[in-house]
């Protein structure tokens, strides 16, 4: 049996070169220290794939129409336990995905991994973050229950604040002046076609660029070669492993070209990636079974008693909207757009070779404040929602 | 009923029967309030430091470990020593003086609030035990666990959690007194409308406060230091303290504004009193104090860089001027009388250039909100510029002027703490528990509606 399997494998390898592909994929050098932090990227990928698989299952049943959308999901809830779990996995993996991709970005930002030559890795990563957020926002419309309807009303109104083309953009998304059947059809199309068509090639580009330049890690992987500005207390360099591909990427950046200690991606990093990813998938499954995906009453545009509650990832923006005066609301709504533009421009603003977060105050201080503000606004927003 | 509550319930009722039936009345109430208020202020000034040190100390130890700098370790150790020395002082005031006075003067209120907040108060008591145990272990095992730094930092992490929980649990009670909810529902009690904002506000505030106070302490030690090593350490630690303090203070405009918003939504009478009523001049003093703190910090940053000829001192001076202008805007009163009700009563509700008593530049929206935004942005700029200039600073060369500014920072912060406590506690008046129990001990009275906001 084993001989037959080996023969089949050899037959397959002769035609596809799978053996060398696997070798190339698994035996790449990665930094040793802090490797648990580098599992966030693979966890993001696993959660996106989970989204894809459960999303395909859901499209087999979901009907994107204002009369059938809620009924199709209600059928899942009432009569199809497996389908309800699949929907729960879709929802909870989306929530956790947003959290994990956010952590991944924060880690990359603090470690200065976006710097030369990895600027395009960062830009594609920001693009992926925006697309995932877009998927979450458009996905929230689809159940067409009260929460979905009022989310659609609020969110489709946001483009109206864009100067000059705002009203046109809102009407284009809504399919008219009001949220209705065309809004749902268009949002469904955006959710299952438009965004994924951009998302998956961008994931490919992100991974290809990662393979080209190698995992940067963080400044602790360069200690010894790293010279502190104050020049004190930096421990001696550990035993250095011979530099191997994909390092060093750039001879112009000697200090930060390759980590001092590396190990093979397989089995060391794959083990850590596996532990984190499997742990997250188990967590998603527990939440999907234990809590499931909520479905409120069917959308009723004529209601006056319903209090819309934003999705948790909207909480910072929602809290800020509550705090600022009426006149400044457009400014708050363009903040996210400004933030994304700033993130895209970051590698070109912060061009200094320095990677140590303690030596980059001009970027780290505003960045840390931005992160803290988001966390605090989320906390305050969640507390307020509880007392609505 | 919970068995523990079944045991304690009758005991509380028995205690209630033994306590004075009525709260102090007439002129006695002023004396009683003054006694409780001054002791509470003293308690908060020390307890805020102990809590802040319990959270900041472990964070500094971790920072030192990551950065491999021994001076962080020395600073964290100093904070540990502070907790072990002052925990008992703070607890003595809290337990012996405040509790005894509260039970004596407002016994009915005391038994009511203990019955309502039984679980948070029980957790509070245990977090005290946890906090002091961990603080002593953390401090006294410093050298013994030097080879096991991870374990030592983990103990520090637990100390930080205990310190946070201790603040949170007492905030549940304090916030309930302002925005009471259904006391039968423990989740509603713990997550009452102002418990989150108050806890975030106080936690961030305590972290800022300890930074400013140890900055001032280091300023005194710097001026008395004899060796170059000590001078370098206290100079650096003072700078670190004010930098840390101001970084935390930067978050407060948003957090404090959010807290005020919740008070507006859930305790309108208190909010009205703060913004337009008898507390509005004190509130104005508070926002002015914030400006003075930020001006002092920016001046310190600029002076400290200039002493060693480090780059950025000129820009920091310009930022100080911007901060002064922002404070002038923030400190504008809206009504040029003691309260807005006085303006309405006099029929002078129009701008001062039309002969009225209203100053539109003092309105919260948009001017004070803009001032708060400017405060935050200018102060972020000041922190960034100071950090950029720091590599050019030689520690141990600071002049007396810088150290005086550090001392002034601590004084301003203490004033701020006392002012905020005064505003919060008095905003409920005449209630001890908003809408439910008056300070004279009457229950279930109807809250009078204030003059509507313009």
Short description, anyone?
The complex is a heterodimer of chains A (388) and B (454). Chain A is mostly helical and 388 residues long.
Summarize the structure in words.
The complex is a heterodimer of chains A (388) and B (454). With 388 residues, chain A is an all-alpha fold. Chain A has a domain at 28-218 and 239-304: Up-down Bundle (Cytochrome Bc1 Complex, Chain C). Chain A is 63% helix and 2% strand. Chain A contains 13 helices and 2 strands; from the N terminus they run H-H-E-H-H-H-H-H-H-H-E-H-H-H-H. Chain A has helices at residues 2-16, 18-26, 40-59, 69-79, 81-111, 119-141, 146-157, 166-174, 181-213, 265-290, 315-323, 329-349, 361-386, and strands at 29-31, 262-264. In chain A, strands 1-2 form a two-stranded antiparallel sheet. In chain A, helix 6 (119-141) crosses helix 7 (146-157) and helix 6 packs antiparallel against helix 9. With 454 residues, chain B is mostly helical. Chain B folds into 2 domains: 29-192, no CATH class; 252-442, no CATH class. Chain B has helices spanning 3-18, 27-67, 70-105, 107-116, 118-140, 149-178, 186-190, 195-224, 228-249, 252-266, 268-275, 280-307, 313-330, 340-346, 364-389, 400-427, and strands spanning 431-433, 437-438. In chain B, strands 1-2 form a two-stranded antiparallel sheet. In chain B, helix 1 (3-18) packs antiparallel against helix 4, helix 2 runs antiparallel to helix 6 (149-178) and helix 3 packs antiparallel against helix 5 (118-140). Residues 447-454 of chain B have low confidence and may be disordered. Chain A binds chain B through residues 229-230, 232-235, 319, 322-325, 327-328, 358, 361-362, 365-366, 369, 372-373, 376-377, 379-380, 382-384, 386-387, and chain B through 67-70, 181, 191-193, 195-197, 200, 204, 247, 250-251, 254-255, 257-258, 261-262, 266, 365-366, 369, 380, 383-384, 387-388, 391.
| Residues in helix, % of chain A | 55-70%
Number of domains of chain B: 2
Q: From the structure provided, what is the oligomeric state, counting identical versus distinct chains?
A: heterodimer
Helicity level of chain B, as a percent range?
over 70%
Q: Reading side by side through the largest sheet of chain B, how are the strands ordered?
A: 1-2
Instruction: Compute the average pLDDT of chain A.
Output: 89
Low-confidence region ranges of chain B: 447-454
User: How many strand elements of chain B?
Assistant: 2
Largest sheet of chain B: 2 strands, antiparallel
* Rg estimate of chain A, integer Å: 24 Å
| CATH homology group of the domain at 28-218 and 239-304 in chain A | Cytochrome Bc1 Complex, Chain C
Uncertain stretches of chain A: 231-236
What gyration radius of chain B follows from the Cα positions, in whole Å? 24 Å
Order of helices and strands of chain A: HHEHHHHHHHEHHHH
